[in-house]
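anyone seen this seq b4? input:
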Amino acid sequence: MAPPLQPGRYQIRYVPPHVIPPFVGGVRAVGIDLNTPILDLPVVPPARGGVDVWEVSYAPDNQDQYIITAPGFKPSAIPQGVGPVLPGWGRIPRKKLAVEGLTPAAISEADVKADKEAEEEGIIPYPDLPVFFATTIKNWNIETAIDGGGDPSKATYVISVPTKLVGAISAVTTDQFHLVTKSYPVTPTSFPLPSWQFIPAKATAPVLYNRVFIV
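predicted toks r here
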């Protein structure tokens, strides 16, 4: 059994079906504007603006899960008044939220709480929902698909929504040029799940992004 993915900064690249790494080209996850889907853009040429290097960390409330955030992100057009925001990978709530009268911070807390309840109750997202570049950051499972023998150019991982449900998984894949979650059965005869490479990135200085806004 391969060791779990270690926290660090990575480019996250999609592995097409029936392709065995290493390979040239492909697409990787790029965050452009807050509250919009994370895009899958070609590795070559590099993206102009946006986030294509991600900070992968253990989730604060569960060391078996991860959060994926944008390192050094300094949005230039967000009037928060309470300091910088930390955007990362989020998703639409799995349970209905009662948000009337709540502040944005309270809505975010309610969203995270409802997501944890949905995990325990075995609820998975509706299929084909986007993965958002958002400030309400959600936990993800990241599990080894192919052990690269210590070579990150050969190892692949499945990114999925945490759930106690047995027999199905909601995994991250690509569709219509952005990242989405899709539901898959988990059986001995199932087709391989969509997988991703986590390519270690060189340290980069914080960047000011001008196209970021909250709607």
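Residues 104-121 form the longest helix (18 residues). Residues 75-83, 203-215 have pLDDT under 50 and may be disordered. kinda curious what u guys think
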